[in-house]
Task: structure prediction
Amino acid sequence: MKKLFFIASLLFVIADSLLGQQSKFIFPKESLYKFNEYAYKRVCSRDTSLPVAKGNNTFHSGFEQMSKMYASLSLPEKYLSFKGGNQILYDTLVITDTLVITGAWLHDGPIIIVNDGCMHFKNAQATILGNIYLMGTHPSLKADSSTLNIPQQYFYQRSLVITGGGKVSYHNTTIDHSGLSHNLVLTDSAHLELENVTNIGFTTNGLYGRPVVNVNNINVAGEYVISGEANLTFKKAHTLLLWHHFPGSSHINFSFPVNDTIYGYHFDNATPGISGIAYSIDADSCYDVMWGIMPETGSDVTISNSTLRTIGLWFMGSDTITVNGLVNNTAYTNFTAPLSDRNLQLNNCQVQTWSLYPMEQSFINMSGCIVGEIGCMGSSDLRGSNFFCDGSGGYLWAGDTSFIIAGFSSASGYIRSQVNGILYFAYSSLLNGYPSALNNSVIIVVQSSVPQEPKALDGGAAWYAYIAQPFDAFTDTVVAVTGSAWIDKTPASFLMDFRSYHLFYQVNGASSWTEIPTDSLNKKKEDTLGLWNTNGLAPGQYNLKLLLKDTWGNTVEGIKGVNVFPLIVNINENINPEDIIIYPNPAKDMIYVKVPVAAQTLSIKITGIMGQSIIEKNIENIKTQSPYTIDIKGLPAGSYLVSMKSEGRQFCKILTIVK
Result:
């Protein structure tokens, strides 16, 4: 079976050259162009509805961190060839013989145990500020009656990687990762033994090859993604999620135990109804146990009378498939999943979370789903619309050299690109968290509402093209078009940068666009993009277009529909709009509103350039108060929209405040 779980970033893997990195990155011009055509038709038809978002039940899945495909797990040969002695290079502790630690101990950096090296914590209180790697023939890590503090600034910052014939055994020991989730990866013939362990945090364990796991008495066991020829034994384990991977050759007809407390659970190729797997699982006297399955392309799976915490669908090879109708927290009486590449039958089952994992060169079209996590790996491609990723299984992410288009959808929790992936999030809504670009990836956010602006981290690049206002406008006025138009990257990034932006308008249904004057060479973040002069335009439906250009010659665009109304509606012949006057303009501390004698009432609304309502007044018996005074001393300098309505007449003016 292919190796599916790898740690993304070993400290000593030599980076590609700048040219080599850039050659991996291919901007998906054609795909974005096709999506823009679809988006243009949809926005112009005013069909921009999103799936209903109902709350957030975030489950911090570590599958993202473990499954960045085909990253190297080998260190440079020099770290495996030391002949005796323990070496410290660049804050890295390399252990090749036996090192015993007692009492208080601190190491600031990663630890690498190689060949026959042994690190033994005995009655120790250790603090380790880095990852731990066991590599080579028979490296070992032991902890007896100790406390290992491995601080993290964010979840999944730290990892323990056991490869080759490595063995880790913790007895009567506390492991503290700042109370946050962290990774543990076992490969080859690795061995993990935990007895009387207190885990402060949540561990995501990835298993492939022929690893052996023995757990006896642990407060939080975490999640185990089980594949290959792994052999696992659990006893007195609490909070345990068992992911059963079903390869393409497997045939499964099985019912998981009904309760979350299990005794004498056994699962292997000899279990009735099971064939085509090579791993084995034994669990006894375990509590708060959750069941997960990962059916791969080609598998034949029937699950009956079970409550599943999660189903993670793997898409392998060059699979091309359409996925729709998968909904979290659904009870299935007799359900065949709408997947043409495998058989997945659920009889009398409850599924809390669906997750999708395209891998290798698979291509997925997805719509009409409510899922917990979407993660792309390899060179896979996912096109999704009208879906909701609710965060109950993790995040929305594009890794390796994969590509995701998420359009007219919504998500809860973080969305991110990573490695050399590209994530295009358009005409959508993020309920919490923020978009981010990690490693050497790109995230492009277009015409989508996000709680925090996109962030470029590591060597990534983040795009943001968003027209925030106006929603409506009036003829014969100057309308402030506000929003954001920028590209950010880190100093370490070799990727594209901001070049310019351009703003256009058109009558809905027209074929041509008219450019709106802008300060096009400067990035704009929650600012005025341009002033749209509607003088002489007929009332009706219009479209605004924001075009964002990078230094590589690529472009993305966002479209926003706007209704343009007559300057005066419901005309009252007794009042002339020119008789309602705001002065002075520009103003500093006060403005005065003068109305004609015929007016009885007046409503005034002063709006900021981003559409936020700042001052609202409803005035009765306006004749006795004219001119009406409004205090504006608390408003900063800038341009504001003043909307007024009196006696059935409605119009607006631009107010300039100076200080």
In short: Helices lie at 18-24, 29-44, 63-66.
